[in-house]
Amino acid sequence: MRESNSKTDSLLRYAFLIILGLVMVYPLIWLFTSSFKTNADIFGSSKLLPSTYVWDSYVLGWQGTGQYGFQDFFINTLKLVIPTVVFTIISSVIVAYGFARFNFPFKTILFSIMIATLMLPNASIMIPRYILFNKMNWLDTYLPFIIPAAFATGAFFVYMMIQFIRGLPVDLDEAATIDGCNSFSVLTRVLLPLCKPALFSVGIFQFMWTWNDFFNSIIYISSVKKFTVSLGLRLSLDASSAVSWNQVLAMSVVSVLPCILLFFFAQKYFVEGISTTGLKG
Q1: Which residue segment(s) compose the domain that 269 sits in?
Q2: Residue 61 lies in a domain
């Protein structure tokens, strides 16, 4: 009797999770199927599958409507995102290593200031940053994204790495020091291999946030030839009065695909990094 009840409970849990999963995934499914619909089908019918299939929406959407195609926006986004992610990981690890393993003057105050920056709303620092980057002639370039990332300005990522490194036994550092390693060697040879889950988490978060960033991109980038994917999608809506929504939705699918693939390929390390960050051992 108990065994049958446990099986029933398991089936109910699985059924609930499947239904919940379908509800969560349904917008992506609708996005994909609607990329093959006509405008009349998109706005005139609530059916998931199109009545009339449009097979060239991806080809035409990729070609674009002006001088620059969607492949240009994709390349621009990679030029922005990859250095930003790499510099974020490197700088966050170095700063977090200092806070987690070393004692130095004003450590507590500096750590408190860093955490306090998490409380600042983006709107309060938007104008000062714009004025600063304008005086440095960084506008209409990717430097406002890349250079700050090289100096560990992402307090969230630094804090995540600090908590992860604090969870690693200090005995490992001491053993490596006895074997002749200096501080840098301890970081690169001992701690970094163990920090792989946290590094993947930082990389995935920064990749998705930078890839999908529209607000900062539209503030700092003004040339169409330097537009990112998010700005390219917006440009396709301004290209003409008659919008081919199947092409816009098709390029939306293409735009979200890298984030989805990255998450699924790295989800093992991502989940492990999130679950272990903040635990002290």
Answers
A1: 67-276
A2: no
Task: Give the confidence band of 237 by pLDDT, cuts at 50, 70, 90.
Answer: confident
| CB-count burial class (<10 Å; 0-12, 13-18, 19+) for 97 | buried
| Among 9-23, 52-66, 136-150, the least confident range | 52-66
Radius of gyration of the chain (CA): 24
Question: Residue 189 is part of a domain; what is its CATH number?
Answer: 1.10.3720.10
C-alpha span between 151 and 6 (Å, rounded): 54
The CA–CA distances, whole Å, from 279 to 17, 158, 275 equal 28, 15, 8
What predicted TM-score, i.e. pTM, was given to this entire model? 0.87
Number of domains in the chain: 1
The answer to the question of residue 154 being in a domain is: yes
Residue 22, both tokens: 């379908």
| Residue 255 backbone zone (phi > 0: left; psi -120 to 50: alpha; other: beta) | alpha
DSSP string, 110-124: HHHHHHHGGGS-HHH
- What token pair was written down for 102? 């070393």
**C-beta of residue 243 within 8 angstroms of C-beta of residue 236:** yes
Q: Would residue 102 be called left, alpha or beta, if left means φ above 0 and alpha means ψ between -120 and 50 degrees?
A: beta
